[in-house]
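Example record for the data management plan.
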Amino acid sequence: MTSPPPGRDLEVAPARLERWVAGFHERHGDGPVSRDGDLVVAASGADGSHADFTYFLHDPLGVVLVRRGGYAVGLAREGRFVATKVGACPGRTPWTREYGSSQL
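Corresponding structural encoding:
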């Protein structure tokens, strides 16, 4: 008996999920769809293919990015940034060219 091929992870926007499931059934044949309330949690195709869904339900979402003396922060709601700020950290940092990489 052989193992099934490994799965893959995809990110699908919630607004596109119903169309993605319809495309899944076009490619793999009609099969059952499991739901938890309004959320699709699994779909199966007639050929034995199976898809499980995990929802990332953090809204609002804060994002922080720090890199080489600069930073960016943002607040996202419903998949769009509603507030952002970017800037530079003043002064020398161990990552600036003045110090060189040998002193890290």
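Summary line stored alongside the record: The chain is about 10% helix and 35% strand.
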